[in-house]
Amino acid sequence: MPKTRLICIAGGSGAGKSTLADGLAGLLGERASTLRLDDYQKTKEHVPLTPSGRRNYDHPDAVDFLKFTGDLLALRAGRDVAVTRREKRKTMDAGVGDAGTVIVPARPLVIVEGYLALWHPDALAQYDLSIYLDAPPALRLERRRWAKDPQYVAEVLVPMHDLYIEPTKRYAHLVIDVASLTCAEVQTLAFKEIDARKLL
């Protein structure tokens, strides 16, 4: 039996992944830590370009999956991991910045959240529970906190979601339609699934 159980929270930008992850982490306290896929975003010069020359931060190639999957394996084995915290700049062209290194401890539960957290097969193999938050496009865009530039949304965000994120829903153990639910209700459904699978 692994020393650490991994819970994945996936879904499109604005679906509520961070809100759910933070809510669960708050409930679980010292029993849980959080690993964010955003912190594995490659720096600007390594992010692929669209045909028009824009940086495509929503493509799988913009994520360092080699380190991400390696850290999942380490956490599952009970080893803490060092992660470079990424902070998003004001514009897409500015990319992401380095906000320092943090240690993610291998607690009994590690909550893994990210838009492409269900995309890589090596990551999929490590999750004890995977949850996909399903939300309609209009709601996700309304909630999106960063880079609402209409050109980026049309050229990158929407097609990348349809091509790489939406299809990963089929890999989730639990799909939650968040459109008509409060944050508390989403959290309750997720916690019930954690409890049902005896992950605590």
UniProtKB/TrEMBL annotation:
Q: GO terms for molecular function, please? A: ATP binding; kinase activity
List, alphabetically, the InterPro entries matched: P-loop_NTPase (IPR027417), PRK/URK (IPR006083)
* Keywords noted in UniProt: Kinase, Transferase
Extract the SUPFAM superfamilies matched here: P-loop containing nucleoside triphosphate hydrolases (SSF52540)
UniProt keyword annotation of Kinase present: yes
Q: Where is the Phosphoribulokinase/uridine kinase domain?
A: 6-180
Q: What is the protein's given name?
A: Phosphoribulokinase/uridine kinase family protein
| Record organism | uncultured bacterium pA1
